[in-house]
Amino acid sequence: MNDLVGRLLVVDWDYFFPNPAMMTGPAGVDAFNYDWGHVESPFMINDVWQTRLTPFVEQNLPLPRCERFEGFWSRFGLSQWEVGSIFVCESNMEAGEIFPASSVLDASDDADGWAEVWLFDAHHDCGYPSALHLRERSQYDCGSWMAEHAERGSELHVRYPWWRATEDGSTFAEVEPEPWVPVDRRLDQWPDAAEDLPDSWDAVVVCRSGAWVPSWNDDQFDVFVESAGIRTVWIDSNFEAGPRKQPDLALARAELDIRAEQYAEIAEANRRLTVPASDQDAR
Q1: β-strands 113-120, 155-160 pairing
Q2: Which domain of life is it from (predicted)?
Q3: Which residues partner with 151 through β-bridges?
């Protein structure tokens, strides 16, 4: 039997980013603006947000922002004495490598894993059908790292954000495929109806999820992390710390102007193809 100690808290920044394309209710007018592919690569974390900015500018819509992150840390009673540092990363895959030996727990070197792992996330990260090939090779990615803790015997808990509820607001049911491993999954109603949570934590990981959350929200991310009042350590060696490349609104507007001119030229060319030459001369 594995020796399990302590409690790991993991918060994915996409928990605070309501995405209409991932909601179960009727799609809004601008839902197509969120039809994004998600791959953790430098391009999809940085450069792609310039392109994804354009539809919002074209439709005169405000850029979508993260919500309800203010006061979130007050739920956990964190102290630097207990957790030491908050581990910050780009990919939540890094949380699959955080074990008691990474924390300030006494006698942690003898522990096999965490007694409990709690994840606040828009996704359960407990393994998806599309990545079963990883499980066969005893590997994991950003969507299956929780299974690594389950293999060591940890009790898993996932709390979905309010915006992942079904249309009647009662549950998260069927918003995601079944996970590989047993996990306690619930809809988190905070701040409207806060769940009673454990009052002690031994390690904390915060994931920026830059392939899911637009770079124009990095200022909010910094405020969120700093509001915990605990020193931070960047642990993701695959991606750089600090603000990402920010989209250029002026560039987006200039590109839209060029596109409008091109469409006008194409429309005129098509008109000339369908209008007899004699009529064109007459005009």
Answers
A1: parallel
A2: Bacteria
A3: none
Distance CA 34, CA 61 (A): 13
CB count, 10 Å around CB of 227? 14
The tokens for 41 are: 């690569």
Tens-digit pLDDT profile for residues 5-56: 999 999 999 999 999 888 876 556 678 899 898 889 999 999 999 999 999 9
Q: What is the pTM of this model?
A: 0.88
**Distance between CA 166 and CA 164 in Å, rounded?**
7
For the chain, the first-to-last Cα distance in angstroms comes to: 88
pLDDT > 60? residue 221: yes
Distance CA 30, CA 280 (A): 40
DSSP for 159-208 reads: EE-GGGS-TTSS--TTSSPPPSS--EEEE--TTTSPPP--S--SEEEEE-
Q: Indicate if the alpha-carbon torsion angle 24, 34, 142, 161 is positive or negative.
A: negative
Total number of residues shown for the chain: 283
* Per-residue tokens: 152: 């060591």
Domain ranges across the chain: 4-234, 247-277
Is residue 121 a contact partner of residue 127, using CB atoms and an 8 Å limit? no
